[in-house]
Amino acid sequence: MRAVIGLLVVVAVVVIWATNIWLTDRFTEPTRSRAELRLALYSGNVQSELQRNSVVPLLLSRDPELINALRAEDFSRTSQRLISFQSEIGAAAIVLLDGSGRTVAATDRNLLGTNHRQDIYFVDAMRSRDTVFGVARRDSGAYEFTFARSIYHEGRVIGVVAVEVDLFKYERAWAGLTDAVAVTDSEGRVILSTEPRWRGLRLDEALAVRDAPSAIQRALRAPADWGQERPDAYLSGEAVMRNEARIPFRGWRIVSFTRYDSVRERVNGVLALEIMGFAMLLAFTFYMMSRRAWSQSAVFQQESAELRRLNARLQREIAEREKVQKDLAVAEQTLAQSSKLAALGEMSAAVSHELNQPLAAMKTYLAGARLLLQRKRPDEAMASFQRIDDLIERMGAITRQLKSYARKGGEAFEPVDLRACISSALAMMEPQLREREVKITRTLPRRPVMVMADRLRLEQVIINLLRNALDATKGVAEPHIDLLLSQGETAILAVRDNGPGIEDLDNLFEPFYTTKKPGEGVGLGLAISSGIVNDLGGRLTARNGEAGGAVFEVQLPILTSETQAAE
To answer: Which residues form a coiled coil (predicted)?
Structure first.
């Protein structure tokens, strides 16, 4: 009997191994063919997009209105004309530069006035009479593809027109269809990829072919490599096949990596049936061997009686557990009612806390308006009354929006420039800033830092952080507050003071936690601010600075063109 079992095991191993080899070879070829067809389609799409955009600078360089605008330096309607061209052509962006490299018209009006004298496409266009192509890397790590051509009038260069090609839409389209796709330039450097970390690297450096991360994972994945040659590459520890095609443009190539998942699923389905068949044979063999143990049936009967007694005991325990669950449900209802009452208390305290700032500002503006009326300066007094009216509207909005502390609100978000929110918050804090001598330093980018947010709620967060910084520097000889705004993958606003710092970082954002004296605060400012930032998809953090003082950081997602289109 042991010889029969050993022979059965050997036959099973041989049959499964041979089947795996044959089926893997059979199913791998169609998968590779489909991957090559997709790659040819991707290559054609990229080439078509480049060819379609390459003729645009030639047409625009001969446009009479653009030439006349550069000659007369009248660009009042030029940007609108470029926008109309963009909608017809489908280009990512169109920019018109004068002879000095200054942007005089653009489809993105935020670029007006910027200087591109040092950009490679501008330099090449000024040196050539033909259309030039440039590839430049952005600060975010992505690449910018631009066709440019100089504009001549009476044999003299008067400007340059540049058309940016949107190739990133193919990255988004490729993602999910195959495991990874990359486009390399003539030097083998990755310029487009569904894996953002590959951009700027050579393909062999980005791929870094290696086995699975650990011996255990290699052992678990070993059956996936049965019956096939060594995989072309490994992507995140998974075996993939590599396919490559040429893009007939400046020596570019496109490479795709496809996992063997579809092949393994089909092969493993057949292998599972074979394994099940051999398992049934082994089970039948073991059944025949177990017949010698039938004499022990009396022992099994005794065990069955013990199981019945155990079942009765379990039923009693289940009945007791159901009774406990009923008692727990009553306790949960009582706790829910208590939570509602606590939420009402928090809402009342939050309204009182958030309205203190506008009320203090209204008091200052009323005093100023009274003094201006006494001095017979009604126009300036009317400006103060207008500010008071704005504050009243703001207070009404605050009472509506503070409901988000207890439940999510339905406020509509819109594109907001963080720099404008900082300026508005400082204007709101003007009465408190005049009462003390506090040095405030602002470090802001020159370009707009756009985020998707509710402007009023975002300004309230900045006001709360400024107010905390002012309170923290009351006992400092030379109070100093820094506002630093930076942008990368996210927008980061840091509010730093030179106060004593934070003692308890763990409970800082808990409701009603405060280090201020009674009457000076209720401990809801940071809790509300953290909730607002979370609703905006960001994060509010706090830490102690290296040179002393507290540092609060607000991190929010950057509003890019892709994000804005998705919104």
So the answer is: 297-334
